[in-house]
Amino acid sequence: MSYIYVVPIELKDHSDLGMLEAFIFETFHLKTRRREFEINLKGVFDPSRGQYNSSLILQQLIMKPPPDADKMLGVLDVDLFIPILTFVFGEAQLKGIGAVVSTQRLQNRFYGLPENREVTSERLLKEAVHELGHTFGLVHCSQSKCVMNSSTYAENIDQKSAELCPLCQKSIKAERNDSVKKGFPFSWWGEK
């Protein structure tokens, strides 16, 4: 059996992780496991930007995956960037094993607004599914309500659903069926 590992990385608040794990199972039909890994955040901090390089975090996350890891999702609460963008909510390897998502810019207080725990939790679910979707081979979807629709701002996240549209669901199912045909023993969408 393979799992999606949820990896808290120096995460102060773990209260959303149980709900996140349940939603990941509901969406991707793979069980989750939670495990901490040593990630050197100091080594990926860019003092000139005051942010953390998500690509370098991702490299560390996937360096030594557990043998039963299908996917690995790092969850942290620092401000992330990639060199060509001002910031990112998360990053993933397209058709790879790893993804990271940060709660930092998902929180209303980052924008000087009153904190809303429910909104932050919902944004985390959406961004986690979005980044994991990339690991399953999904690219950005043109359907405005699909969770795979691109989000430049937190308001964009709020406007879309936490669900994959039927076309994206079909794409993931086809990808997983191809993996089974190639000899990878995955359980997907209730199929064995």
Keywords:
Collagenase (Catalytic Domain); about 190 residues; about 30% helix; alpha/beta; globular; three-stranded mixed sheet; five-stranded mixed sheet; 5 helices
Task: Provide a compact summary of the structure.
The chain contains five helices and eight strands; from the N terminus they run βαβββαββββααα. The protein has 192 residues and is of the alpha/beta class.
What features would you describe in this structure?
This protein has 192 residues and is α/β, with parallel strands linked by helices. Helix 1 packs across helix 3.
Low-confidence stretches: 184-192
CATH class equals Alpha Beta
Q: What is the level-2 CATH architecture name?
A: 3-Layer(aba) Sandwich
Q: What is the element string, with H for helices and E for strands?
A: EHEEEHEEEEHHH
CA radius of gyration is 16 Å
Count of individual helical segments: 5
- Report strand %: 15-25%
Largest sheet: 5 strands, mixed
Broad shape: globular
